[in-house]
Amino acid sequence: MNQITDTASSALLAGEAAFDPIEERLRANVRATIEAVFEEELDSFLGRLRYSRGDGAAKGYRHGHRERQLTGTFGTETVRVPRARIEDDAGKVTEWRSKALPRYQRLTKKADMAFEVMSALRNVLGLRIPEDVSLIGFDDVPMAGMPEFALTTIRQPLSQMAANTTRMMVEAIRDHDAEAENIAFAPKLVTRATVRRRPE
Q1: How many domains, the chain?
Q2: Is 158 in the same domain as 174?
Q3: Quick one: how far is CA 199 from the chain centroid?
Q4: Are residues 145 and 176 in the same domain?
Q5: Is the pLDDT of residue 14 over 70?
Q6: For the chain, which terminus, N or C, has the lower number of CB atoms within 10 Å?
Q7: In a domain, 169, yes or no
Q8: Choice between 171 and 132, residue whose per-residue pLDDT is larger
Q9: Which ranges of the chain would DSSP assign to H, the alpha helix?
């Protein structure tokens, strides 16, 4: 099943400075999802230790959480990452490290790339934006709208994407034979001050 969506009806998130309950709900869902991934990763790791065979098998146990800041589409979010200690057969104790966390951090570094390019163009190469070069970012992170950046960017309809993802997950849980959907979402170009306009 293919579906094309339009962003015209998603005006609630479009440039409003006031509190947006939809965005806040999405932020909460994003935090909960990321934290659930870390919890499941640790559960799986400790389970493998528990059922590993041999006298010299390592042991592991939880010991609380730590807070980490991750930068994503909605800006910087604070998430709780579980902690665990692993003890080998010699009694040496090491700290468990999530493999999912650095992967997510590498992914979210892309959000800062446009701002690093902007800084390099201006301060290293001495170029003017947009007079000498135009620059377009992606995902319309909160920093893009700040006056010091005013970055032209592509905004994705995140509320629609999250709602459809949730709906499809629920349908897949209820019906394992549910037909897969391929949904194309229409992005929106948010024009600010980093792209030179064509002369009329």
Answers
A1: 2
A2: yes
A3: 37
A4: yes
A5: no
A6: C
A7: yes
A8: 132
A9: 21-50, 100-108, 113-119, 158-174
